[in-house]
Amino acid sequence: MDTNTLDRPALFVDGEWTLPEHGDGLEVLEAATGTTLGWSATASETDIDAAVGSAGRALIGWRALAPARRAEHLDRFAAALHARAKQTAALTSRENGMPIRLSVGVNGYAPGLMMKYYADLIRSVDRDDVRPSALGGRTVVRREPVGVVAAITPWNYPQSIAAMKIAPALAAGCTVVLKPAPETSLDAFVFADAAVEAGLPAGVVNVVPGGREVGAHLVRHPGVDKVAFTGSTPAGRAIGEVCGRLLRPVTLELGGKSASIVTVDADLELFAAKLLEVSLVNNGQTCHAGTRILAPRALYSQVVELVTETVRGLVIGDPLDRSTQIGPLVSAAQRDRVLGYIDMGRAAGYRVTTGGGAVAQRGAGWFVEPTVFEGVDNAARIAREEIFGPVLTITEYEDEDEAVAIANDSDYGLGGTVWTSDEERGLALADRIHSGTVGVNHYALDLAAPFGGVKASGLGRELGPEGLTPYYSAKSIYFGAL
Ligand code: NAD
User: Fold this and answer.
1) Where do the catalytic residues lie (predicted)?
2) Is 259-446 assigned to CATH 3.40.309.10?
3) Atom of ligand 1 nearest to the CA of 157
4) N or C: which end of the chain has fewer CB within 10 A?
């Protein structure tokens, strides 16, 4: 194992830095250069057993704390994450290629904000709800923590996606075993550093990187009470099957292929100004990105020209440079996959209006040019499958009914946007889109509102008060009439 300051040779189990069972660590590569960024400890099944055991022991004391005491811990945890925000953002951008101007918010500051949000929420949520019984007497409905949570996360927004699980889980009185994606193992240890600094009780948060085999071991572990997963739809289905057999609660945040409907009265300047953040955010490596642009016949050529010019003008570069709008993809495999889809689109006869290949002058980093296909039939594979890179398709529609039909003709249902000068019309169209979230002239997650998908985009919701509910189990305690 090389040694450099970014190396993380130990797992975080039971509040201790613990050497893994096997010494051979996991190499984390830098997306912009393809060279070694650092080495991470990687967990074996035995290490996972130890982490789950520690979370189980910690559960006894953690769940017994009054919510106000847990909230104080979360506040300190938030402060410790906040203090590290800038370094965390830079480290994550080096791992996954996310432009730093985005990473500072979503990897740097968002985790602390989530801890704070759920700390404040549990201060205002009573543990018990006392209800008069319909049959006389009364019932105490008690919110109990569901138990030990296995949090399994992907590499694209590793910090915020982990925090979307850790924050509500800890707030509800659960303890957590975090298994991050191998590509972004290094930044996951920031949660361990912050837990130590905040003085969280040992075992409340455990960090054990590893591949999908140890992830699978964690999912089926008898000491786990709930699984919170974000990742691809195939992995989500595999995890859902195991949890179904075990009757184990599971939340699944999966893939997407969202539509951006440009209506005839859209403010096209606004649409162009927001194209990067709505459709190509994080180099297109975003589950809710609006990658299928639907344009009305009357504006079709104008939309094609506008999207093409906007995408052509994006600044491709080093993710750590604040002017960069498009950075490299996370890995060589991801770059090859995205280039494969571009070839597939061309082979199917669709016209590339800009981009269409790797960025040769960027050396060994995994850069792909932001690419636009026009005239795409919604039945084409590039319009149906999640590419997870900077590739957009433009499809023409006749009227709004057809736009809605195309938007909904997808296996997925995670995001979507409507572009219109009339908010009422936007709301009416949003209502017809079969999806967990929709934006009108805008798309951004809201910490206080539920996020999640329908159909192949998953099960359950994270964020907002709805994001706390899956970490509780409701117990009814009946009292008869006196
Ligand atoms: P992935 O599914 O390959 O891996 C995600 C995580 O699950 C990793 O930690 C991986 O090691 C683990 N894993 C994989 N198979 C497993 C199994 N059978 N059992 C247990 N653990 C397993 O996904 P990825 O390539 O890391 O991330 C990209 C995918 O994530 C995209 O499809 C994207 O749309 C999706 N995603 C969804 C959301 C959302 O909120 N809906 C957010 C971000 C990413």
Assistant:
1) 253
2) yes
3) 43
4) C
- Buried (b) or exposed (e) across 172-196, using 16+ Cβ within 10 A? bbbbbbbbbbbbbbbbbbbbbbbbb
* Residue closest to 279 by CA, chosen among 234, 323, 325: 325
Domain with CATH 3.40.605.10 in the chain: 3-254+457-478
Q: Tokens standing for 342?
A: 């571009």
Q: Is this model's pTM higher than 0.70 or not?
A: yes
The residue whose CB lies within 8 Å of the most ligand 1 atoms, and thus the one to mutate among 232, 248, 254, 281, is: 232
- The CATH 3.40.309.10 portion of the chain extends over 259-446
Q: Is the distance from CB of 52 to CB of 152 less than 8 angstroms?
A: no
Q: 269 CA to middle of ligand 1, Å?
A: 35
Radius of gyration of the chain (CA): 23
Q: Is 374 a catalytic residue?
A: no
Strand intervals (E) in 190-318: 205-207, 226-230, 250-253, 259-262, 292-296
